[in-house]
Specification:
The complex is a heterodimer of chains A (327) and B (248). With 327 residues, chain A is α/β, with parallel strands linked by helices. Helices cover 27% and strands 30% of the residues of chain A. Chain B is built from six helices and 13 strands. In chain B, the strands form two sheets. In chain B, strands 9-8-7-10-6-1-4-5-11 form a nine-stranded mixed beta sheet, sandwiched between helices. In chain B, helix 2 packs across helix 5 and helix 3 packs across helix 4. The chains are: A alpha/beta (327), B alpha/beta (248). The site of one flavin-adenine dinucleotide has 30 residues of chain B, from helix 1, strand 4, helix 3, strand 6 and helix 4.
């Protein structure tokens, strides 16, 4: 019997997340290598149109579960749906993105379908008919290669690591299924979602991050970081020192006890590069550092460094980039 | 309220990781172990709830004798009891969660608190697994928690937003930074903790399901170049970003 991979595509406000395209594309690749098939699963309310887009990334068949009770994420509700579809489709392999939703859902589903999770994978390959996953441990200070030995093998894929590739232009066929959501399935219920960063990008979802540290001297100087981020369409990040000082909100903190990020470009302004900070960002593809101390450890991981006063360099950089990008 | 808090015993964040001689785990020599930072938020939250509503806080850790040190810290902060779920072998999150859940089936807590993530294997799974094994709901990455009249309201951090969640009790809550400010153990707390017994129970058996084939260090990032000093270096930096790195 050939294997079916089920890959979950995540929607928020009816739009599929970019990182889901990455996950679907990788799932397609692995399914091909295993000689199996791929189905995507989208859960929400009236999301068929968005689901068709997944054809672009290699999912020809998409299972859609539409239910008004599933408009917002619910841990218990979504766990029920995914577990039921896993059983119905008789799938032994499940892919999710390691987003807030994926990380929450994966262990709950694992317990229910007799599975186990390799979490936050940064590499997946097929070896002798089995999936070998590479995942960072100890905040990225080491990597382990793992195999999942369970009836249902679950993998969550770190966002921004796998390429989504170009859309192919093909449309997926939609298969609507329904799952009964009642009673215990609604033991957790989302009543409201409040934006914390008022329409701003989250560091875990950004291609470019501009982060500031204590070297910016005062919370009032963070407008420099924000303006530079605006020019680049980047998210704003922060070191723990400035979060602890109350200069910046918790959700901007990058590092071992903050968020782990791997954007295409990470710009560190007035950040020393403590090991806990590096743990969260050293897998970024390119790192730029501006620091007035030429011996600051951040320069050990930076591809490009400028030794200088951030308060002077940042406005100049903003201006130069504005020109270069024709804004 | 009967509150169980799960604490893991982890290498501190300064640790320079070396791969051990088995090629699968870290070399523990010279490593300083501490209570998992997120679990301090979990313990603090448990203590706050007990101070408000009364009840009992029991700290649990699954592992070898070394984990007693972490349990002592929880006792010093103010936990009433500590239980070591003893097992010297390596367990993945699935097997850890099984061990914890089996113990909790007889303890019957009203609330279980865990940390968002254990900073060793970074799985973010134990909370969700324990909840499902017990057939109760869970809220992960919680930055706010309120319990009143047998109902639980929490806020959980998602990308760029907070989800406001209502859940029934009993429930598992995974604590994220921001939930509270963990207290430092007082001298009196530390002295008392030394006298409190740590109960030892053999952890229920469970097989690990995520098998480690090998551990390696990530490729060293080569230090790049200093483009220059001060404002004068800016045009060259922008050129490099566009033409060499091609990231903008
Ligand atoms: C358990 C634990 C967990 C932690 N987790 C995290 C985490 O998740 N994330 C994190 O970031 N940290 C974390 N830390 C803290 C970490 O150890 C550092 O203290 C912190 O990262 C330092 O922040 P910083 O670089 O902004 O400040 P500092 O280390 O004070 O560095 C400021 C830098 O700015 C430079 N500078 C000063 N003035 C200027 C100027 N005018 N222009 C340019 N540069 C200038 C200085 O040369 C210096 O390098 C953790 C620590 C512990 C103990
Ligand atoms: C030598 C050795 C090798 C190990 N190898 C592995 C391995 O290969 N893979 C692996 O996943 N784990 C391994 N572990 C176990 C590891 O130390 C953790 O206890 C366990 O993996 C849970 O970590 P996590 O990242 O899965 O937890 P998470 O799911 O991230 O933890 C969330 C929360 O669950 C609670 N929690 C987690 N672990 C425990 C615990 N032991 N006792 C009480 N509460 C806990 C804490 O509140 C924690 O904040 C090993 C342990 C040792 C001593």
């Amino acid at each position: 019997m050939s294997v079916t991979i089920l890959a979950i595509a995540e929607q928020r406000n009816g739009e599929i997340k970019k990182t889901s395209f990455e996950t679907i594309r990788k799932a397609r690749e692995i399914a091909d290598e295993l000689g199996g098939s791929l189905k995507a699963l989208v859960i929400g309310n009236t999301i068929n149109d968005a689901a068709k887009e997944l054809g672009n990334y290699g999912a020809e068949q998409v299972v859609v579960v539409n239910d008004e009770k599933l408009t917002h994420y619910s841990t218990t509700g979504y766990t029920k749906v995914v577990s039921e579809i896993v059983k119905k489709e008789n799938t032994g392999i499940l892919f999710l993105s390691a987003t807030a939703l994926g990380k929450d859902l994966a262990p709950c589903v694992a317990a229910r379908v007799d599975g186990a999770v390799a979490a936050d994978c940064t590499e997946l390959k097929v070896d002798d008919g089995d999936i070998v996953a590479t995942r960072p441990v100890f905040a990225g200070k080491a990597l382990i290669d793992v195999k999942v030995e369970a009836p249902v093998k679950i993998f969550t894929l770190r966002p921004n690591v796998f390429a989504a590739g170009e859309p192919s232009g093909s449309e997926a066929s939609i298969e609507e299924q329904s799952v009964d959501i009642s009673g215990d399935d609604l033991k957790t219920k989302v009543t409201e979602i409040t934006e914390t960063s008022k329409g701003k990008l989250d560091v875990t979802e950004a291609d470019i991050i501009v982060s500031g540290g204590r070297g910016l001297k005062s919370p009032d100087n963070f407008y420099l970081v924000e303006e530079l981020a605006d020019v680049l369409g980047a998210a704003v990040g922060a070191s723990r020192a400035v979060v602890d000082a109350g200069w910046r909100p918790h959700d901007e903190q990058v590092g071992q006890t903050g968020k782990t990020v791997s954007p295409a470009l990470y710009i560190a302004l007035g950040i020393s590069g403590a090991v806990q900070h590096l743990a969260g960002m050293s897998s970024s593809k390119y790192i730029v550092a501006v620091n007035k101390d030429k011996d600051a450890p951040i320069f050990q991981v930076a591809d490009y460094g400028i030794v200088g006063d951030a308060l002077e360099v940042v406005p100049a950089l903003k201006e130069e980039l504005t020109k270069a990008l024709g804004k | 309220m009967k509150i169980a808090v799960c604490v893991s015993h982890v290498p501190d964040t300064e640790t320079k990781v070396k791969v051990g001689s088995d090629g699968k785990t870290i070399d523990p020599s010279g490593v300083n172990y501490v209570v998992n930072p997120y679990d301090e938020f979990a313990v603090e939250e448990a203590l706050k709830i007990r101070e408000k509503d009364g009840g009992e806080v029991v700290a649990l850790s699954l592992g070898g004798d070394a984990n007693k040190e972490t349990l002592r810290k929880a006792l010093a902060m103010g936990a009433d009891k500590a239980v070591l779920l003893k097992d010297d072998s390596e367990r993945d999150s699935f097997a850890v969660a099984k061990g914890i859940a089996e113990y909790l089936k007889s303890y019957e807590p009203d609330l279980v608190l865990v940390g968002k993530q254990s900073i060793d294997y970074d799985n973010l799974q134990v909370g969700g697994l324990v909840a499902e094994f017990l057939g109760i709901p869970s809220v992960s990455v919680a930055v706010k928690l309120e319990i009143a009249d047998g109902k639980l309201k929490a806020e959980r951090e998602i990308e760029g937003a907070h989800e406001h969640v209502e859940a029934s009790l009993p429930c598992v809550i995974a604590a994220q930074r921001g939930l509270n400010d963990p207290r430092y153990p007082s001298l009196k707390g530390i002295m008392q903790a030394k006298k409190k017994p740590i109960e030892e129970v053999d952890a229920a058996k469970a097989e690990s399901r995520v098998k480690v084939l090998g551990m390696k260090k990530p490729p060293e990032k080569q230090p790049g170049k200093i483009v220059g000093e001060g404002v004068d270096a800016v045009p060259e930096l922008v050129r490099l970003l566009r033409e060499e790195a091609k990231v903008i």
